[in-house]
Amino acid sequence: MKIVEIKAHKRDKIGKNKVDKLRQSTKVPAILYGKESIPLVVEDPEAKKLYSLRHENFLVKLMIDDMQAKEALLKDIQLNPVKNNVIHLDFLELVQDRPIKVKVPVELDGTPVGLKQGGITQHFLWDLTVKCLPKDIPEHIKVDISSLDIGDSIHVKDIKVDSKVKVCDKSSQVVITIGLPTGVIEERQAAAAAAAAAAEAAAAAAAAGVEAGAEGEEGAAVPGAEGAAAPGTEGAPAAVPGKPGATGKPGAPVKPGTAEKGKTEAPGTPAAKGKTPGAPPAKAPGKK
Questions:
Q1: pLDDT band with cut points at 50, 70 and 90 for residue 66
Q2: Contact call for residues 105 and 55 (beta carbons, < 8 A)
Q3: Which of 30, 50, 4 is nearest to 91 (CA)?
Q4: Could you give the CA distance from residue 4 to residue 61 in angstroms, rounded to a whole number?
Q5: Between 257 and 135, where is the model more confident?
Q6: Which of 94, 263, 272, 288 is most solvent-facing, going by the fewest CB within 10 Å?
């Protein structure tokens, strides 16, 4: 990891008025937090050097008068909102055998496939919070985005880091995604809605055609009225004249002498008692 050496001096002047006087003399008040807090003062050029590196991840080696050099992290830089110059610096002393939480910048590598198809890059998380020993703090975390297509995303859980480094951010948090411009999204949504409506109309038309066909089949007349058996159908009664059990046609006239009064015999039935089968009917008295 990059190390930046900064010269500093102990500061015994504490209080708002004394701090303001330091700033007027082109010096920047600072403080080193650790086992004990040490007020410091840093020359303006040194402060500007740190400000120029504010977007990078680095360690600071503080050279404080005759003290042993101390490794630290730059925790905060305060700026004058009007003049935009550095007015205060905060450092955090590092202990080599004690893990620490720090923010590490995310570095994107490659050009997403989706950009060539009209997509746009939406970057949500620029830094990751990690926990590790000071010596294991990465300078940056590189993320390959070259394979991302439109609609693809990279979450915190998808990022691979060294086994000595633990990522503290939520695993479900989105780091980067490839989306579509607003106009393109609206066009695609309108096209999808139109396609869905067309498919629904086609399905309704097909269903109506099936129902019409079914009604036509039900209304079709079968030759020989309801209940009539088609010729040769199993179980259909075949009335054959002259055979026992055959029934005559409904409404057929009965020949005189073929049955007793009030009764009708079917053709071919056994003759009445006292009559010879097949004999002609007896003539009535007085008639020729």
A1: confident
A2: yes
A3: 30
A4: 6
A5: 135
A6: 288
Predicted TM-score (pTM) of this structure: 0.56
In sequence order, the β-bridge partners of residue 28 are 42
Which CATH code fits 3-94?
2.40.240.10
HSE of 230, CA atoms in CB hemisphere, 13 A: 4
- E strands within 171-215? 174-179
| DSSP helix/strand/coil, 213 | helix
The mean pLDDT value for 123-147 works out to: 93
Give exposure, 185-219, as e/b (b: 16+ Cβ within 10 Å): eeeeeeeeeeeeeeeeeeeeeeeeeeeeeeeeeee
Tens of pLDDT, residues 9-36: 998 767 676 777 777 788 899 999 988 8
Q: What is the pLDDT of residue 145?
A: 95
Q: Taking 60 as the threshold, does the pLDDT of residue 188 lie above it?
A: yes
User: In whole angstroms, what is the distance from residue 268 CA to residue 262 CA?
Assistant: 18
Query: Which CATH number applies to 101-183?
Result: 2.170.120.20
Beta carbons of 178 and 114 less than 8 angstroms apart: yes
All structural domains of the chain with their residue ranges: 3-94, 101-183
Within the chain, what is the greatest distance between any pair of CA atoms? 171
Which of 39, 75, 44, 79 lies closest to 60 in space, CA to CA? 75
Strand partners, 155: 174
Q: Please provide residue 224's backbone torsions phi and psi, each rounded to the nearest 5 degrees.
A: 90, 70
